[in-house]
Design goal:
CATH class: Alpha Beta
Mean pLDDT: 95
Helix content: 40-55%
CATH topology: TIM Barrel
Order of helices and strands: EHEHEHEHEHEHHEHEH
Number of strands: 8
Number of helices: 9
Distance between the termini: 5 Å
């Protein structure tokens, strides 16, 4: 018997809702775990572990605060690296979740040159990878669309970046929503990532629930199988409205998030071959 694929949700999509409330919501819907927002001022690892275990949830991955590992100002870059080093220690105390890293969200052009900032990001990730390796942890480079970040926007760029980093504990995170903007064939991008694909995020083309946009998720589920992907599917929907960098727009946003997650979970249970237990 093989286990069905785990399904999680990013905690940041609920805004400032307390983690206890998020955990209860996700447990009630039938989720397996979370991608935890790396707010080091809000969470203590022991409390997080106890709370999530109480609700039958696992921390699959940790997503970072918005810091700039590629900033040409060495002071700003050092602050970002220090944050990630503390995030690695935090993740180690939680167990062995994947740690996501990416360029600064909201900076869509270089302050110096693209080449220089890419090199700065490579060097930063190399340093973080060494520390993560000492803790038995893996990093995933999250690929963001050009309207959110400027350094690594496609699966092929991510593959080249990971090769340049040259660390065995660094892989790729591809997101259906971002691929919908950047990839001519998102399913092909998943297949091409292959064994380097360590994490997959899902939201539809409008960043709502699966089935509310035009993404061909059946093709992406088949591509995950072709890539021999055994990791979790992490849902990262946001409520309708302006400001793509804020998941919660108004007093009705959390009800929308609940609905999108429930619809997406139902779609995955029905259509993802990875949800079927094989004998």
């Amino acid at each position: 018997m093989t286990q069905p694929r785990n399904i999680g949700a990013c905690t940041w999509i609920y805004g400032d809702l307390p983690l206890a409330d998020i955990a209860q919501r996700l447990h009630g819907m039938g989720f397996d775990g979370v991608e935890l927002m790396g707010d080091l001022s809000a969470y203590q690892p022991s409390a997080v572990k106890a709370l999530l275990e109480e609700n039958g949830l696992t921390v699959f991955s940790v997503t970072p605060d918005n810091v700039d590992l590629a900033h040409p100002d060495p002071t700003i870059r050092a602050q970002a690296i220090d944050y990630y080093l503390r995030l690695i220690e935090f993740a180690a105390a939680l167990g062995q979740p994947l740690i996501s890293c990416h360029g600064y969200v909201g900076r869509i052009r270089p302050l110096s040159t693209l080449l220089e900032e890419r090199e700065l990001l490579v060097h930063a990730v190399q340093r973080l990878a060494k520390t993560a390796q000492a803790h038995g942890l893996r990093l995933v480079l999250e690929v963001l669309n050009r309207y959110e970040s400027h350094l690594v926007c496609t699966g092929s760029e991510a593959a080249a970046f990971v090769r340049d980093v040259g660390a065995a504990n660094v892989g790729i995170l591809l997101d259906a929503y971002h691929m919908n903007i950047e990839e001519s064939d998102p399913a092909a991008a998943l297949r091409q990532a292959g064994r380097a694909l360590w994490l997959y995020h899902a939201a539809d083309s409008n960043r709502q629930g699966m089935g509310r946009g035009h993404i061909d998720f059946s093709a992406q589920m088949a591509a995950l199988a072709a890539a021999d992907y055994h990791g979790p599917i992490i849902l990262e929907c946001t409520a309708p409205g302006p400001d793509p960098f804020s998941a919660i727009k108004d007093e009705g946003s959390r009800a929308w998030i609940d609905q999108y997650l429930q619809e997406s979970l139902q779609w995955l249970r029905q259509h993802d071959p990875g949800q079927q237990i094989a004998s």
